[in-house]
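Input (structure):
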């Protein structure tokens, strides 16, 4: 047995070595489990609820622990033996060598299960301890430049988490399903990730993938590929239930949840509110495209996730030592998760935006630093952005380039408001409607107001020189014509702070071209040029 490190005996070898190591340590299974639960691997969570009974199943070869858990248990036992004075010469070869244990585990993991001793090699899924949150589409958090911080900030439990965890705790006895419903970046996927960490070690997690997620899920539900104690990870459930295979998947899921032979399983999903409404809508006629989906999405399986943190939840977030949560608490107005996920997305969208959209954002920041705003007219943004484009880009501009650029910069990202919110005549600043909704609403907005996260923690690039210095900033300021910066929609004249406006604007004070009014066609009016000391 000792020499069998591959083939069908690899699992038996691992189980035998583990039994030998545990016996040599002098620890009971329960005491060994307690020591494992007390030790935290560097940068990772302790696998939840390791028990003596679970260690017994590994010794008997009924299950193979995950690599992380196996090496943690081995390390605990080896350290205990070394503290008692054990040496490599006093035990079997390799028993106190972690490299040997890693090789034994890899050989066992690569060996298919036989005689039904373990279902973990015959069915889909991976041990929960071997999964990573970002690989399961948990949004990365904002980067504040502190390399000491972990990938994700500390989790702040909220009201919906309590009900979710009660459901997860009951999954060991019968199959269950929970769908978290909320708008973009409200923390739905992170809540599911935190909840499954409390499942026993022998649970698997499966996220369908190939050939397509819907097809993989349907195949798994209609075959024996999904074994007991498996979490079905169905983030963005609309892609499974709203497509061509949606009704078949919904019917198969309902049947699967009631199959006591194949359970227990835990089905976890997320949905946006608008998608839940579409899937649960009762048709007025005979055609019912989402009948099975509506039956699956029973209200008892739906857990709503609020957009805003409650006062108590926000206080607990601010009380953590993580600077990302502190920043989100101060800047988000209670939309903490949207800030954490949305600001990095805003920055990334800037990096991937067309040159014209980047020019609009760069010009807007320069103009704001000269003391204008906060509301800026589209005509001003157009003129300033044009000056920042190179000759090649200018020669390829289409007539609608500024409309497309402004539309790009006024698109929300992961629940965070856009950098620029359009001001439609007669309305307040809106949450960045889509192009189609703007056409339906009437004329295109002439004015734009910066969003709340427009300059938060790297969401937009920051100029590296002060106002009034540097060719880029002088070029932008001197390109702007006074008729483009006269009045806001409210009628208030835009002015600059004393000493902030460049002299080239004063030289253009005699321009009498029409200004932008509150709506409709431009109307002639006497232009007031921003001067030092004018109201802002």
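Output (sequence):
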């Amino acid at each position: 047995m000792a020499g069998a490190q591959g083939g069908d005996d690899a699992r038996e070898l691992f189980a035998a070595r583990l039994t030998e190591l545990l016996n040599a340590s002098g620890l009971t299974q329960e005491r060994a489990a307690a020591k494992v639960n007390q030790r935290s691997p560097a940068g990772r969570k302790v696998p939840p609820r390791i028990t003596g009974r679970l260690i017994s199943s590994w010794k008997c070869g009924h299950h193979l622990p995950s690599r992380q858990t196996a090496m943690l248990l081995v390390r605990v036992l080896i350290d205990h033996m070394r503290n008692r004075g054990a040496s490599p010469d006093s035990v079997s070869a390799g028993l106190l060598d972690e490299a040997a244990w890693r090789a034994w585990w890899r050989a066992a993991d690569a060996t298919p299960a036989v005689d039904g001793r373990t279902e973990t090699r015959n069915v889909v899924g991976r041990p929960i301890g071997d999964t990573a949150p970002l690989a399961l589409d948990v949004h990365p958090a904002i980067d504040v430049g502190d390399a000491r911080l972990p990938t994700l900030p500390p989790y702040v439990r909220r009201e919906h988490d309590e009900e979710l965890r009660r459901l997860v705790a009951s999954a060991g006895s019968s199959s269950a399903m929970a769908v978290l419903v909320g708008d973009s970046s409200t923390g739905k996927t992170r809540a599911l990730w935190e909840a499954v960490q409390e499942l026993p070690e022998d649970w698997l997690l499966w996220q369908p993938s190939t050939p397509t997620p819907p097809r993989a899920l349907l195949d798994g539900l209609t075959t024996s590929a999904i074994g007991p104690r498996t979490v079905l990870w169905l983030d963005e459930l609309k892609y499974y239930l709203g497509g061509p295979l949606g009704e078949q998947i919904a019917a198969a899921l309902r049947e699967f949840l009631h199959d006591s032979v194949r359970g227990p399983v835990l089905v976890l999903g997320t949905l946006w509110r608008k998608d839940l409404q579409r899937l649960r809508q009762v048709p007025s006629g005979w055609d019912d495209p989402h009948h099975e989906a509506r039956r699956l999405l029973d209200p008892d399986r739906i857990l709503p996730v609020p957009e805003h943190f409650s006062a108590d939840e926000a206080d607990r977030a601010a009380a953590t030592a993580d600077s990302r949560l502190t920043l989100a608490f101060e800047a988000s107005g209670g939309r903490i998760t949207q800030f954490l996920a949305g600001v990095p997305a805003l920055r990334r969208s800037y990096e991937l935006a067309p040159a014209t959209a980047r020019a609009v954002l760069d010009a807007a920041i320069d103009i704001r630093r000269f003391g204008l705003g906060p509301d800026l007219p589209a005509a001003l943004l157009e003129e300033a952005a044009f000056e920042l484009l190179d000759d090649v880009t200018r020669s390829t501009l289409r007539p609608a380039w500024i409309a497309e650029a402004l539309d790009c910069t006024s698109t929300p990202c992961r629940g965070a408001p856009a950098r620029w919110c359009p001001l439609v005549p007669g309305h307040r600043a809106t949450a960045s409607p889509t192009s189609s909704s703007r056409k339906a609403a009437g004329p295109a907005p002439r004015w734009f107001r910066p969003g709340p996260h427009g300059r938060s923690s790297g969401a937009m690039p920051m100029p590296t020189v002060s106002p009034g210095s540097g060719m880029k900033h002088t070029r932008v300021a001197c390109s702007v014509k006074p008729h483009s910066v006269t009045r806001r929609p409210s009628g208030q004249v835009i002015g600059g702070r004393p000493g902030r406006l460049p002299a080239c604007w004063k030289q253009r004070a005699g321009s009498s071209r029409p200004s932008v009014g509150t709506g409709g066609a431009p109307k002639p009016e006497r232009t007031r040029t921003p001067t030092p000391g004018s109201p802002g």
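Notes: Residues 67-83 form the longest helix (17 residues). The longest strand covers residues 265-271.
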